[in-house]
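The data layer described in this paper is built around a simple, fixed record for each protein. Such a record has a labelled line for the sequence and another for the backbone structure tokens. For reference, a complete record is included directly beneath this paragraph.
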Amino acid sequence: MTAKLTLYSRKDCCLCDEMKAVIRQVGETIPVELAEVDVDSSPELKKQFGDEVPVLFIDDRKAFKFRVTTTGLKKQLTGKRQPLFERLARAMRKEPT
């Protein structure tokens, strides 16, 4: 199954370039479909995101803002990340992860 990624970014943004590089690297081993959206292309997007780019959505859900690592992205895409509520419940019971 191919994950649909949407990257909100802008031109001449070093953090955006870094995130694109990570996405390309992960895309070599995990199939992804990437749509890039320039936030400066629309007043609404510019207002919504301002200077808070890059922002990466995975299947229409916000997943990363500003930075992403190959490990973090791979975990999100393969579903190996434990849901937050499960981690919190386990931490409250002081169980090992």
